[in-house]
Amino acid sequence: MLPAEGPVARGFADVRGLVHAHSVYSHDACDNAPVLEDGSYDPVCFDDFRRGMCQSGHDFVFLTDHGNRFQNHEFPDVLLFRADRGDVLIERGGAPVANRITCEDGRTVLVTAGSENGLMPVGLERHVADDLAARDAVYGPLTAEAADALRAAGAVILLAHPEDYTVEQLRELPLDGFEMFNLHANTELNAGFALDLLVRANDDDQGLPHPDLLVLALQSEDPRYLERWGRVLAGGRRVVSTMGTDCHRNTFRTILADGERADSYRRMMIAFSNHLRVTTGDDDVIDDADLKEALRRGRLWGAFEVMGYPQGFDASATKDGATFELGDDVPVGAAIRVVAPRVRNLDPKAEPPRLVTRVLRAVDDAAGFVEVAATEGATLEVVADVAGAYRVEVRMMPWHLRDALVDEARRILDEAELAGVDYPWVYANPFYVRD
Known about the structure:
The protein has helices at 29-32, 43-55, 67-70, 132-139, 144-152, 167-172, 183-189, 191-202, 214-218, 223-234, 265-269, 288-296, 402-405, 409-418, and strands spanning 6-7, 13-21, 60-62, 65-66, 88-92, 95-102, 108-116, 120-124, 156-159, 177-182, 240-247, 273-278, 300-303, 310-311, 314-319, 322-324, 329-331, 335-339, 342-343, 354-362, 369-375, 379-383, 388-397, 423-428, 431-434.
């Protein structure tokens, strides 16, 4: 597993992590039994989560535990804090708001609390009330009053599973953003194929892909997400969109060839991630406030890293000497410039993947977006001469994974190529081009 790039263009740091993850403080995590008969929390599942964060090389995790258990526990427990393991709390106003987990190799992962119920507030710095009934009254409803109370507690207000809502609802709900992809929902789209793969794994089928590529074997682009994302943007809303891992360790208990459960936290966490472009203070240390500022401003791009770690990706807009970042308002006539990423540590003996970089504009129809420009080259530049929300994506045909895909290479590569299908590798949040 590779770390994030760190310092990148124009003084930003690139940090990588998860938005939407469930720990032992969700009732349906850990095979739906996070609490043991003696009332303690499952230590195996707890450790699998912490180990997965470290092994995946993430810099941060925005936890989103379900309210019916999360609201019954206090800070810093809900931050997965363990003083005996070297964790260090970030405090604000004399109270803990986030936790720096220390990994065995000395790396740290910044963990914040959050909850998935009606809304999905992330980065909570405290509970919204001391009283459990008062907490329940806020964590559940999809109301402006609940959103206001959650923001007052430090949260960014997201929504999981936008496929469960209409475009009109997403335009009206009191949100800062919602998901552009969700692994749990995507797996359900391909449930039959997932079960077939697990049966083959139980039968020790030697034609299965490398265990960490099973997610790629199940992955598909979800038009429900793209339509809602595009139409909400085309309707004039500013929203940040995130990649939802939605890991629970409660789905596939099958032990794969590498000795891990099919749904181990590590395996789910390495499949894809959210990259935030953050700025730091004078101490050059990134904290939870820096992460939330970048998230609110839409300085986020998601990567399907199951196909490889992107290196060198950049997107900006310029006009009259001014430079604009993802999530910014941009004047009509600005030039959007994209630097295509390359696969980090690509095997020089492997056939290189085909990459296509695209700029798209949001439209209010079933497609969600329309292509403005595309290239297989190293850079793409296009003038945004029409107002609207413009996003960047990079698509891939992962030829370099042929050997690791084994028998599935025919379906994932050859048959997809014949059908004109490739795979999203990078989804970036939009520029908002205004008249």
